[in-house]
Amino acid sequence: MRGGKQLPLLPLLILILYLQTSLLASHRDVVALQVASGPEPAQQYWTEEKEDEVDVVQSHQGSPSLRGGCDMSVGEWIYDRSYPLYDASCPYLSAQVSCRRNGRPDHDYERWRWKPQHCSLPRFNALDFLGRMRRKRVVLVGDSIMRNQWESLVCMVEAVIPDEKKTVTTHGTSTSFHALVRTADLAKRVIDSRSFPALYAFFVVEQLDFETSIEFHWAPLLVELEAGGAQNKRILHLDSIEENAKHWRGADVLVFDSAHWWTHSGKWSSWDMYMENGRLFTDLNPMVAYEKGLFTWAKWVDMNLDPRRTQVIFRTVSPRHNRSNGWQCYRQRKPLFYLGHSHRSPVQLTVLREVLRKMSFPVYVQDITGMSALRRDGHPSIYARSGNGQEQLYPRVPASDCSHWCLPGVPDIWNEMLYSII
Length: 422
Fold this sequence. Notes:
The chain is 25% helix and 17% strand. The protein has 10 helices and 14 strands. The radius of gyration is 22 Å and the shape is globular.
């Protein structure tokens, strides 16, 4: 600089563009498996495929995408040595899903990426994501599987942010990852990591801030659950949502899920009674209750959100591979070939689509159910731990966890899909 004048803007813009583009380019050693077709869903259960038949992975379930007419849920799993997208030592991973740390001996479950049949899924670029989410709130709302996805997204982003520029805060049922960094900070970090000549850093003079918040709010039923209500019972309020919704008001991107908790029964149930229109009752079909709860959520979205300012995504139910469902996940090391005798679409998905059909607000359905059903290899199984109080993050997990997902792993691909949507 001379005379207090700043350098021309053009070199800065060229540098920033180069830095972003360079992160996308990486040497890939990819092994693509051949494509094979499987029978259409016909039965209500999933059956296991022999492990020696696991050569190709393909899904035939899903719904048309709202982005360019491509159904991202139909495709194949490709083994790609350039994955995972972040290191398993990411400090934001809970013990419950840190399968490497917990002694899982195989690591190939981290190296599968998803290839849609009729379009491409862009590789996640943390700098580009932060740029597009500049001064925005991304809020993930749901159960422990959504917490799984939140941890994945935070780990996909945090590596490009200097330690002193990122924080995690927790307030009750909400946990937030905050990034407050300048373009100069990010550029210097990339330059240093690549041993670029110092000359390039000379041009990074603008103070462009990335103020991004990635938040998780615990609300597995979306509607309000009252502990110690009338008669000292746990009451599920099917027509009340504001106590939860106040946490995600003002968000720019909202990602929801709600499915598993509605089917819990007996000792696993989270409520004793329902309340609707001021009336208490105990007997109600779980899917009728689910529909009522979703309609309450849908009404809130329609009445309180502006599609010009807020994007809403509803992620479909994450499959379980428990023995009770005819599966097992222990010692599974490869994805399935295809869902040979796969179940029909989950009932929750049918209910969800019916509710969304009646909404005025455009909600994007991120269908991950079929593609994830192929990944029985991706669960923690016996390599799950919940010490240091983290059982609160992943409550009620059996000794062999075939519900949540190892990280790095399958939820990273959900987030690559999310990245292509927002």
